């Protein structure tokens, strides 16, 4: 008996051409199928220290993200982090974390199918996002490494600042809202069409 692997489609597979046509000052590309795990544990606990040792990076504090390693760690709440890694890392990363935690109390849940990630870059990122997001993206307020859960045009997103002056941003958006967010981004760029940068 042959078991066929199901074909995966990213939530924005039909949007790649449209997103590539945005103004020169805003580049948007989807990072589909990233491994995403929700980690719940008590900060500062033996479980937290074991996870940090296993990952080789700290669990970031409130409103921050640790983006330096292969596994990105995003603060989502007082006892919750989202771990983001390349596609296909779910099994080994879950096993690694559960092994590190041992008998200590913690939960690790695979939520990879829940969201997709949009990588935005360019000098128009901050300006365009300001049209639909109440966050102040001034670098004095939201420096590189900021990780904030907010609304973008009424869609819930997690926004991670990756570049100076918010010139590089990740938007993690639930798959069911991905097309809506893409539509909004295209519409928000209407006045910048024809811009050369």
UniProtKB/TrEMBL annotation:
It holds the Pfam family SoxG. SUPFAM superfamilies: Folate-binding domain. It comes from the Bacteria. This is Sarcosine oxidase subunit gamma family protein. The lineage of its organism: Bacteria, Bacillati, Actinomycetota, Actinomycetes, Kitasatosporales.
